[in-house]
Design a protein that fits this description.
The protein is α/β, with parallel strands linked by helices and 268 residues long. It has two domains: 117 residues, D-Maltodextrin-Binding Protein, domain 2; 119 residues, 3-Layer(aba) Sandwich (D-Maltodextrin-Binding Protein, domain 2), CATH 3.40.190. The chain contains nine helices and eleven strands. Strands 1, 2, 3, 4, 6, 7, 8, 9 and 11 form a nine-stranded mixed beta sheet that branches. The chain has a two-stranded parallel sheet with strand order 5-10. It is globular, with a radius of gyration of 19 Å. The relative contact order is 0.22.
Length: 268
């Protein structure tokens, strides 16, 4: 249960544990804005701690942890058993900390008249079985499917909760971040994508799913069918500066406040 820090542009290419007073954080682009926000406040309290922050996806963050290249891996999914086995071979013991709650929200262009889809319809659209908006109450236009790439924890959660392991259509436009999904959907009136709740803004229109609305309350209660936790992973229980940062992230008046301010759902 951890989160966020200040920003030094590039990720270090040396083992994160080699330097005292320096934290390297890498991974999920969903978790990234929380960490960016928290970093500002944390750095004011801890000016001696240098932080290097980068995105790249949950899979890349966990790989960096396994390879000893990051202090904290940000992830929007749980670690896989195969990743745990690789970590053990490198004498790394992944330690999971939930830092926030998220809701994955399907979004469409503001000009799209569709307001609600069922889970079955979402699956069929992303499989490529439903190809035209008129099949789900929209205009007579081909659906442009926008998805995250395979290194994304959001993609893997979508694959698990929506696709039920069915393959996303090869026609899908794959994006590297929540932000690029928003931009793509905002520019194409026939597109559909999915993003973390913290990325919702006026550029796109959030859909309801099975008549349910994505909110902090429905995400925390799991009434929203696409709710999940967001994580930090460290090598063993966090120590030294990493522990200081994790404690900051879990503090209701500090890091958890940053979670709420970035549009995500605090744990407490």
């Amino acid at each position: 249960m951890f989160k966020k820090l200040c920003v030094a542009a590039a990720m270090m290419t040396v083992a994160a544990s080699s330097f005292a007073g320096e934290l390297v954080i890498n991974g999920s682009t969903t978790v990234l804005p929380i960490v960016q926000k928290a970093t500002e406040a944390f750095s004011k309290e801890n000016p001696s701690v240098s932080i290097s922050l980068s995105g790249g996806g949950s899979g890349n963050g966990i790989k960096a942890l396994v390879d000893g290249l990051t202090t904290i891996a940000m992830s929007s999914r749980d670690i896989k058993s195969s990743e745990v086995e690789l970590a053990k071979k490198n004498s790394v013991s992944p330690y999971r900390i939930a830092v926030a709650v998220d809701a994955i929200v399907p979004v469409v262009n503001n000009a799209n008249p569709v307001k609600n889809l069922t889970m079955a319809q979402l699956k069929a659209i992303y499989e490529g079985k439903i190809k035209n908006w008129k099949e789900v109450g929209g205009s007579d236009a081909s659906i442009v499917v926008v998805s995250r790439d395979s290194s994304s924890g959001t993609f893997e959660t979508w694959e698990e909760l929506v696709m039920k392991k069915a393959r996303v259509t090869p026609r899908a436009l794959l994006q590297t971040s929540n932000g690029t999904v928003v931009q793509t959907v905002a520019k194409n009136k026939n597109s559909i994508g999915y993003i973390g709740i913290g990325y919702l803004d006026k550029q796109t229109k959030a859909l309801t799913v099975d008549g349910k609305v994505a909110t902090a309350d429905t995400a925390k209660s799991k009434q929203w069918p696409l709710a999940r936790e967001l994580y930090f992973f460290t090598n063993g229980a966090p120590k030294a500066d990493a522990k200081t940062f994790v404690d900051f992230m879990l503090d209701a008046n500090k890091g958890q406040k940053c979670v709420k301010e970035t549009g995500f759902v605090p744990l407490k």
